[in-house]
Design brief:
By secondary structure, the chain is of the alpha/beta class. Helices cover 40% and strands 13% of the residues. Helix 7 links the parallel strand 5 and strand 6. It is globular and about 50 Å long. The relative contact order is 0.16.
């Protein structure tokens, strides 16, 4: 997968003309969250350095693989959907100090704060699911923008279990007390200024979805929001360049 992401992400953009040519951006749709690791490995090579991670999830996913005991311990069993960011951090792929989790309501693996200590060493800001009651969607947006900034290359990773299972039951590790789909969509729209260079929407499990396929519908809408935010940010950036070159603002936009 790393090679596939690298090959696709290294292709010449379809539009090479104009004031602001872009590198290709990949939106991955899927099941297991571990797909984020090969994506980050490819982006590290494409952009020449570590990438900030904005991670919407009920769980940390920065756990040391030792927290996942296996009857068949191996390098392969160390790589799973709860350890991929730990591996990425240890490989130097994640920009320490500019990354954030949002929507957390995870249980810890012990009776101490070791999970959080490990997470902090990897440079993540933690925004809990409950924080939205105190700060609202606007406050969550402001915290993320302050943490990451608008120019830092960023990987956006959305685990569908960040949304409450009453609204999105189609996932393998549901956690009660999550955000609504409306809240998450509002937050994603408010983060258009971020320099998102790649994204995923993961942990969608159709076998567990309701008869109305509400989880799949929400995931599809989130994909639409990400794609349109890329277009919107590009249009705004191009317009700034055009205005700067002519000294006049275009009326049609």
């Amino acid at each position: 997968m790393s090679e596939a992401f690298l090959e696709l992400g290294s292709r010449a953009p379809a539009l090479t003309q104009g004031p602001n040519p872009w590198k290709p951006k990949l939106l991955t749709l899927g099941g297991d969250h571990s797909i984020a690791l090969p994506a980050l490995r490819a982006l590290n090579q494409i952009h020449g350095g570590p990438i900030a991670v904005l991670h919407f999830d009920a769980h940390l996913d920065t756990w040391n693989p030792a927290k996942y005991p296996s009857a068949w311990e191996s390098a392969q069993s160390d790589f799973n959907h709860g350890s991929m960011f730990w591996i990425a951090s240890n490989e130097g792929l994640i920009l320490n100090g500019s990354s954030a989790h949002a929507g957390l309501r995870t249980r810890l693996t012990g009776d101490d704060w070791a999970d959080y200590d490990d997470d902090e060493r990897q440079g993540f800001l933690r925004i809990s699911s409950d924080d939205i009651d105190d700060f609202g969607t606007k406050g969550i947006i402001e915290m993320i923008l302050e943490r990451i900034g608008t120019e830092t290359p960023t990987y956006l990773s959305i685990d569908i279990d960040v949304i409450d299972p009453g609204l999105c039951p189609g996932t393998g590790t549901p956690e009660p007390g999550g955000w609504t789909s409306r809240e998450l969509i509002r937050i994603i729209r408010g983060l258009e200024a971020l320099n998102v260079v790649g994204a995923d929407i993961v942990e969608v499990a159709p076998a567990y979805d309701g008869t109305g396929e509400q989880t799949a519908l929400t995931a599809a809408q989130l994909g639409f929001e990400i794609l349109t935010s890329w277009v919107g940010r590009g249009m705004k950036k191009d317009e700034k360049v055009k205005v700067g070159n002519t000294g006049q603002k275009r009326d049609e936009l």
